[in-house]
Amino acid sequence: MDRPIRVLVAKPGLDGHDRGAKVIARALRDAGMEVVYTGLHQTPEQIVHAAIQEDADAIGLSVLSGAHLTLFPRVVELLRERDAEDITVFGGGIIPAADVVVLKEQGVAELFTPGTPTAQVVQWVRARVRPAATAA
Amino acid sequence: MARDSESGLPIEPVYGPDALEGWDPREKLGEPGSYPFTRGVYPSMYTGRPWTMRQYAGFGTAAESNARYKQLIANGTMGLSVAFDLPTQMGHDSDAAIASGEVGKVGVAIDSIDDMRVLFGGIPLDKVSTSMTINAPAALLLLLYQLVAEEQGVPADQLTGTIQNDVLKEYIARGTYIFPPKPSLRLIADIFKYCRAEIPKWNTISISGYHMAEAGASPAQEIAFTLADGIEYVRTAVAAGMDVDDFAPRLSFFFVSRTTILEEVAKFRAARRIWAKVMRDEFGAKNPKSLMLRFHTQTAGVQLTAQQPEVNLVRVAVQGLAAVLGGTQSLHTNSFDEAIALPTDKSARLALRTQQVLAYETDVTATVDPFAGSYVVEKMTDEVEAATLELMRKLEDLGGAVQGIEHGFQKAEIERNAYRIALETDSAERVVVGVNRYQLDAEEPYEPLRVDPAIEKQQAERLCKLRAWREQSRVDDALALLKKAADGDDNVLYPMKEALAARATIGEVCDALREVWGTYAPTDAY
């Protein structure tokens, strides 16, 4: 039967602000999803590796340092290289409107900026992400 | 309707004389500038001169930041406050793989003495006081500052400023840690000793609750966990053989200021009273300066909204007012566009103007501690103090701040509060103007300041040149001596200064220390 949606919440780069990531992790968990949090200071390579290892259905990236234009597309690109594009990538942080457009063009499915209610993120993940049909 | 304060304590609709029954102003307040310093650390406070207006700034290359500092000085700012980019804060060079995308973003990129010389070019270091938000590599940046001053002909004993240097709060909230707690505390003790001998007017640490508050801490949690960190630093320095009165006068603190004015004023007053008592009774400090909780304040960035961002100008004015009514020694007011991007020149100027209005167009500077004797504020001061002491006791029962960090105690408390605030905001029980009430149908577009992505390449080229030109054997010898000191008991700052003078980079010096001390790996849950 359907297992719960599994989300890897990740902090790429050197940014130490994890309030948003932790709040989203809790909200997704309280909504019945399985959530794995990577901890701080992860490279895109480490994140993609963890997502595949953990059999994640989605990766939620959080960056508040302004490095999103480098780090988010890199995660999408690595997933593609590893034939894991079925893992949905979404993100959040201090991301100017113009960058939201750029990131979506590059394969980030959705971006949530400050002031987004947690319920909206939960709803979006439910609507957009399906748990992979597990072999087991 | 009765409501709860941010610390979760009830606020009564009306307070009267009965709120202060048995309250003795001689015991609870004293005189301004005297124990227990509830009313402020100086007798005249702002009636003599206002607080130091210190605007945190820095981005891109050293040359760009240098231009912004000169502009801030021309606009009337009184002290510099340097923001470093994340690679610098984490002890990596700009060309390290992990630095990709981060160079120059949240602050200025500094790789070596060559960048530091550009950063302070044309700024007389004997005239300005400089605060540097740098923690794990604080010793390196302080020494680079001293080296640049020496090149300018300014002796070290004339330098004034602050390094944040508060690593414990990095484990709790801010995340830019490098080494494990034990060697980090040893490095801090080395810095205390070095500054006492070489840079005596320098504030050696800024023990910070700001970042905990930004991560979600309540006012009581903010000051409890911060003062507990302070106690840990004092214990470390005393254990390293220092006399408490030899370093305690140079300790300073850093707090947030929220829009909830009454509780913030109570918080600042309670914090002063608690610290004075701890220093006098627990550590036996004799010098009155050792008992004074001097602090910098920054307005709460987390309360700013990306929606209708101009409204943030009003929030910042209210927050800044709370800091002033609470007796801050210096203040940074945030720019209104910080929930969107780095501040522009104009928004940074408006932030400074906000402080100038508070200082010169209001009457709150005309008299010391204007809320003294207010039924509600005195009552809240007592209540915040009691809630704080209770939390500090819990931490002591765990074995102190470091043990608490190892148990994940402070982080868990803060994150629980952050989640509660998020849910209250979602349900609009907590009103955020423009976000969950009084929204616009469509937000106006806003064009933020951007950092030139070419800077990463420029820094890498500078590093390449530096490594080719410098005398490599001098660097290697200096780094070897540094490692030897780190492995033993000698003060690491002396060989570190030699390495930096020989043009070792931030990344190389930190790597040398990583080899000896290892790195911190948190046990991180959510």
UniProtKB/TrEMBL annotation, chain A:
Enumerate the UniProt keywords alphabetically.
Cobalamin, Cobalt, Isomerase, Metal-binding
Give cofactor(s), names only: adenosylcob(III)alamin
Official protein name in the record = Methylmalonyl-CoA mutase
Species for this entry:
Streptomyces chryseus
- What CDD domains does the entry give? MM_CoA_mut_B12_BD
Where does the B12-binding domain lie?
Answer: 4-132
Return the InterPro entries for the record: Acid_CoA_mut_C, Cobalamin-bd, Cobalamin-bd_sf
Domain of life from the UniProt record? Bacteria
Task: Report the Pfam families cross-referenced here.
Answer: B12-binding (PF02310)
Automatic annotation (TrEMBL), chain B:
| UniProt-recorded name of the protein | Methylmalonyl-CoA mutase
Q: Where is the Methylmalonyl-CoA mutase alpha/beta chain catalytic domain?
A: 6-518
Q: Which PANTHER family match?
A: METHYLMALONYL-COA MUTASE, LARGE SUBUNIT, METHYLMALONYL-COA MUTASE, MITOCHONDRIAL-RELATED
Q: Which organism is it from?
A: Streptomyces chryseus
Q: Which InterPro entries match?
A: Cbl-dep_enz_cat, MeMalonylCoA_mutase_a/b_cat, MMCoA_mutase_a_cat
Q: What UniProt keywords are attached to this protein's entry?
A: Isomerase
Q: How does it assemble?
A: Heterodimer of an alpha and a beta chain.
Region Disordered: what ranges? 1-27
